[in-house]
Design goal:
The complex is a heterodimer of chains A (343) and B (312).
Chain A: H1 9-28, H2 33-44, E1 48-53, H3 59-70, E2 73-78, H4 85-89, E3 90-94, E4 100-104, H5 106-109, E5 114-120, H6 127-139, E6 141-144, E7 147-150, E8 155-161, H7 173-178, E9 179-185, H8 191-199, H9 206-212, H10 223-233, H11 238-252, H12 266-269, E10 270-273, H13 276-292, H14 300-311, E11 315-317, H15 319-322, H16 325-339
Parallel strand pairs in A: 1-8, 1-9, 2-5, 5-8
Antiparallel strand pairs in A: 3-4, 6-7, 10-11
Chain B: E1 9-13, H1 20-25, E2 26-33, E3 44-53, E4 58-59, E5 68-71, E6 74-85, E7 91-101, E8 109-113, E9 116-124, E10 127-135, E11 138-142, H2 172-196, H3 200-203, H4 208-220, H5 225-244, H6 253-259, H7 267-281, H8 286-292, H9 295-311
Antiparallel strand pairs in B: 1-2, 2-3, 3-7, 4-9, 5-6, 6-7, 8-11, 9-10
Helix pairs in contact in B: 4-5, 4-9, 5-7, 5-9, 7-8
Classes of the chains: A alpha/beta (343), B alpha+beta (312).
């Protein structure tokens, strides 16, 4: 259903490029079509992404493949307990001549060309580091060496595993709210994909695997422009506006919306969250999805396709329910979509 | 209180031994009883005392005698009062008293029922005036139930009279009302079961498409054009939602048909419907939507789905 007006040839070309990008990543990371689609949406919505999942499901491989496909400068750091914000900004050492040297750290090394900043195991870093990251994510800038560095094309990808809890620091709500999406990754269910991953030696060497991805499928310099064009080109009718507002209301106040979950006091379930920024992000991501589907108007399916990843981490539950979050929030979101009428 | 028999027996007109102003205020006390004699042990004795006072007076209720024992042989069972205006403009207070006589008489004799005072009051602007009306003592004639020296019997049990025969009660009305109550209870139970979807009512499916069609036909009278077309699409949406128990979006159609195979016959029409609905609501293309699924077609689809849900 191609309903994009022919005048928007640029958007059409870019959609083809996005499809090529998805195919290229899909060759390296099998069985993760949904995660790849969501990452593509995040790239064109200019949003930061958090990947969450078990160890060894391919989070890092996926992000490396995406960084390669995206082109542009790429930096990667590993979160540790003793990491300090300054470690990201500069690096000091004694040179061969015995004089102290100060060199830019991972964030500043590539200067303004930095397009992908990949933060591995983000929950191992301390809150001080999270605070710096918050600034980088929110404003795409950082102050260092008496000047301000700007990263117009920067996209932050972070991952964390949800197995360990010792020596980890939960991200503050404000930092989590800055992530466009939190994508949960699981090992593929498909039997063939599983066999390939285990027996095909191609998947064992991740360095070679990511190198197979065609470099720079997307022109990272122009993604900012095209992202703005997408947001302007995709229309939202009043019906979809009221649908989104209805979803928002039902998510924050599930009790009055008539949602009942077994064994849960719906009046006390949701403490807060689902910020206006979060809902704006939701529409932003949904517009990109509509564009990828070849439409220039939003439909409820666009909202539904990105809703769990964009909204789930923005809902804060009462402490009694917080421990069972992984089970309650998906149920709540499913109930919200089963309750709010569209159109 | 039962009305007294028509032949009242004038008993007494008491000139009251009270002070001069009270005399002026209480005009007279009259006692009426149905009969003055022929009372046996256990009989109820009815008496009506009529107190006539000046206008503006009324009875002071606490001054009435309390039901309970009056003498060792007489109990007061009940007192009721009634106030009205007499023909001569006086205020009339009627006391209906019910006594019970427990006197075991060996011969016929007259016994005196004691009198009692009753206070009447008139509340004026300068405080209240009270006066006492003395209900006089009066006599009743009591009679024995049996002779003093009864005929000699060999068996002492023969002195006892045989028990009176209880009347034969007709069980028919009670049975009929029990049956009627049972039927009513069963009907109420059925209504409750239907309301709560118990038992067989739980298996009964709703008919959302029939309801949607009905609602749409009602709307048809008030609306037309684009608004009516949208209402038709909404009716179809709500019918699908209610059938599935969740919101069905266009992409959910294959799953929906999987869960409700009865509607597979209309798969193509439903596809057209979802495409038209998308265009109408989200694509700002009402004309395109109407071309894809014209209004009569939408209504007919609603009717066909209603028929399918009935046969499902």
């Amino acid at each position: 259903m191609n309903t994009l007006p022919p005048g928007d040839a640029m958007l059409t070309d870019w959609r083809d490029a996005a499809a090529r990008f998805e195919r290229a990543i899909g060759k390296a990371v099998v069985g993760q079509e949904r995660a790849i689609r969501l990452l593509t949406i995040a790239i064109f919505a200019r949003g930061h992404v958090m990947l969450e999942g078990d160890v060894g499901v391919g989070k890092t491989t996926l992000l490396r493949a995406v960084a390669r496909g995206l082109g542009g400068a790429y930096e990667r750091v590993e979160g540790t307990v003793d990491m300090m914000p300054t470690d990201l900004i500069y690096h000091t050492y004694l040179g061969e001549d015995g004089r102290p040297r100060v060199e830019p750290g991972p964030v500043l090394r590539q200067a303004e060309d930095l397009s992908v900043f990949f933060f591995n195991e983000i929950n191992r870093a301390r809150p001080q580091v999270h605070a710096l990251l918050l600034r980088i994510m929110a404003e795409r800038s950082v102050s260092a060496f008496n000047r301000e560095y700007r990263f117009p094309n920067l996209q932050v990808f972070a991952d964390r595993n949800r197995v360990e809890r010792e020596e980890t620091f939960e991200l503050p709500a404000a930092a989590r709210d800055r992530f466009l999406m939190e994508i949960g990754m699981e090992a593929p269910r498909d039997a063939k994909a599983r066999r390939d991953l285990v027996f095909d030696p191609r998947f064992h060497d991740t360095d070679r695997l990511t190198e197979e991805v065609e470099a720079g499928v997307l022109d990272h310099d122009r993604i900012g422009t095209i992202a703005g064009a997408i947001q302007h080109a995709i229309r939202a009718e009043p019906a979809i506006e009221s649908y989104v507002v209805g979803l928002w209301e039902a998510l924050v106040r599930p009790g009055p919306a008539g949602i009942r979950l077994p064994g849960i006091d719906m009046e006390r379930l949701v403490q807060g969250g689902a910020s206006p920024r979060g809902v704006a992000f939701l529409v932003r991501a949904a517009r990109v999805r509509a564009w990828l589907e070849g439409r220039d108007w939003l439909v409820p399916e666009d909202i539904r396709a990105v809703f769990p990843e964009v909204m789930a981490h923005r809902v804060f539950l009462e402490p009694v329910y917080e421990m069972r979050r992984a089970q309650i929030v998906p149920d709540l979101i499913r109930a919200v979509f089963e309750t709010v009428p569209a159109p | 209180m039962r009305a007294l028999p028509t032949l009242p027996l004038f008993l007494a007109l008491a000139a009251l031994p009270a002070s001069a102003p009270a005399l002026a205020q209480v005009r007279g006390v009259e006692l009426r009883t149905p009969r003055a004699f022929g009372y046996f042990q256990g009989d109820l004795v009815q008496v009506q005392a009529e107190i006539r006072t000046d206008p503006g007076f009324s009875l002071q209720r606490p001054s009435l005698p309390k039901p309970g024992p009056v003498t060792y042989w007489l109990d007061l069972r009940d007192v009721t009062t009634e106030e009205s205006r007499g023909a001569d403009g006086s205020h009339v207070i009627r006391l209906r008293l019910t006594y019970q006589d427990f006197y075991v008489a060996l011969d016929a004799r007259a016994l005196e029922v004691p009198g009692f005072p009753v206070t009447v009051e008139s509340a004026g602007t300068n405080g209240s005036t009270t006066a006492v009306a003395q209900v006089p003592a009066w006599k009743i004639g009591v009679s024995p139930l049996r002779e003093v020296q009864p005929e000699r019997r060999d068996d002492p049990a023969d002195y006892l009279r045989p028990d009176g025969r209880a009347p034969r009660l007709d069980p028919q009305p009670a049975l009929a009302s029990a049956a009627a109550s049972l039927v009513l209870a069963a009907a109420a139970g059925l209504l409750l079961a239907r309301d709560r979807a118990w038992g067989m009512f739980g298996r009964r499916r709703g008919r959302p498409f029939a309801l949607a069609l009905k609602a749409f036909r009602r709307l048809k009278r008030h609306q037309q054009g684009d608004a009516l077309y949208r209402e038709a699409l909404l009716a179809l949406h709500r019918g699908l939602d209610a059938t599935d128990g969740r919101r069905v979006l266009a992409d959910d159609l294959p799953d929906f048909l999987g869960r409700h195979p009865a509607f597979r016959a209309q798969a193509r029409a439903l596809q057209d419907f979802f495409a038209a609905s998308r265009l109408a609501f989200f694509g700002r293309d009402g004309a395109g939507a109407a071309a894809r699924l014209p209004l009569p077609e939408a209504e007919s689809l609603l009717r066909r789905l209603g028929a399918l849900e009935r046969s499902a």
